[in-house]
Design a protein that fits this description.
heterodimer; A: about 110 residues; mainly beta; four-stranded antiparallel β-sheet; globular; B: about 120 residues
């Protein structure tokens, strides 16, 4: 199993640009989570999906952030427009129907200048 | 609401000595408890979990953790530390009752440094 796949691994962009982060969960997993990690705030849950449906997006910082899961094997997290304070490592994680633990991808390091 | 506390930002231990990384939790119902490890520039890697049953759970790389309900703790332990164990360790809790029960709440992490 390839594990959770995220792309790109690194993204450097200028303030005001649109950024799209991508995630492919582990095959057969039905829950998907987006997290953000910074030194100041630690690991924060942004949004999670169950069976492709968003369940809780209360962690999404503001309207500039949006997430979609059009099918069971793909999700995107979009920031438009991006700001320097969005600089962080963004992780995607997935969880199976009969397992309790989440499996994390390698993350996308976003730098907004 | 659920919460996790990792009281130590950093733990230093000599190679070969036993190590303990502390974690306490708060949930309204029964907890599911997890430990994850993060190496530099990597994602979080699952180590072990407590769901039910035996209070002592064993996981990857020789790590184990003991669930103590009365003290609401789930400390991570290893009998003999290796330099390669140096990493950031996260404790997480999930309340498996009610809505939002898929959500994990993570502690702030403890940096473990094993000194040769």
């Amino acid at each position: 199993d390839a594990g959770v796949i995220q792309s790109p691994r690194h993204e450097v962009t200028e303030m005001g640009q649109e950024v799209t982060l991508r995630c492919k969960p582990i095959s057969g997993h039905n829950s998907l989570f987006w997290y953000r990690q910074t030194m100041m705030r630690g690991l924060e849950l942004l949004i999670y999906f169950n069976n492709n449906v968003p369940i809780d997006d209360s962690g999404m910082p503001e309207d500039r952030f949006s997430a979609k899961m059009p099918n069971a094997s793909f999700s995107t997290l979009k920031i438009q427009p991006s700001e320097p304070r969005d600089s962080a490592v963004y992780f995607c994680a997935s969880q199976g129907k009969v397992t309790y633990e989440q499996y994390f991808g390698p993350g996308t390091r976003l730098t907004v200048t | 609401a659920q919460s996790v506390a990792q009281p130590e930002d950093q733990v230093n231990v000599a190679e070969g000595n036993p190590l303990t990384v502390k974690c306490t939790y708060s949930v309204s119902g029964n907890p599911y408890l997890f430990w994850y490890v993060q190496y530099p520039n990597r994602g979080l890697q699952f180590l072990l979990k407590y769901i039910t049953g035996d209070n002592l759970v064993k996981g990857s790389y020789g790590f184990e953790a003991e669930f103590n309900k009365s003290q609401t703790s789930f400390h991570l332990k290893k009998p003999s530390a290796l330099v390669s164990d140096s990493a950031l360790y996260f404790c997480a809790v999930r309340d498996h009752s009610g809505a939002g029960s898929y959500q994990l709440t993570f502690g702030k992490g403890t940096k473990l440094s094993v000194i040769p």
